[in-house]
Amino acid sequence: MDLTLATRDVDGTTIVAVGGEIDVYTAPKLRDKITELVADGVYHLVIDMENVEFLDSTGLGVLVGGLKKVRAHDGSLHLVCTQDRLLKIFRITGLAKVFVIHDSAEAALAHS
Question: Is the backbone of residue 4 left (phi > 0), alpha (psi -120 to 50) or beta?
């Protein structure tokens, strides 16, 4: 399964809609997109994971790295995720306390 990325800007916050699997093979594509956005001066990101079917530790590492990148510029990185199997990964790893996780892009935008 491949990884799809679609970005859109909403009032100064960029939403990155991610689809497919975030694993050791596809995670660099997401990392490169986040790095590119931060290099372009985008420091407020919402990663919409509603269409993500699989997430492994490499993908988690990319999300943590992205959070560090935007925080270095006083930015924010919020996640949109409602899938129990993905939320369970965030809870088990303790990352549910690190990331702000919303149930919709609209909710994430309201808090970003």
Answer: beta
Q: Which residues pair with 5 in a beta bridge?
A: 18
20, 55 contact by CB (below 8 A): no
What's the token pair of residue 25?
């093979």
pTM, whole model, 2 decimals? 0.96
86 burial type by CB count under 10 A (0-12 exposed, 13-18 middle, 19+ buried) = buried
CATH for 3-111, options being 3.30.750.24, 3.40.50.700, 3.50.50.60, 3.40.50.2000? 3.30.750.24
3-class DSSP assignment, residue 48: strand
- Give the whole-angstrom CA distance, residue 78 versus residue 76: 6
For 14-23, how does the pLDDT look when each residue is reduced to its tens digit (9 = 90+)? 999 999 999 9
Angstrom distance (rounded) from CA 3 to CA 97? 26
Query: Encoding tokens for residue 13?
Result: 């916050």
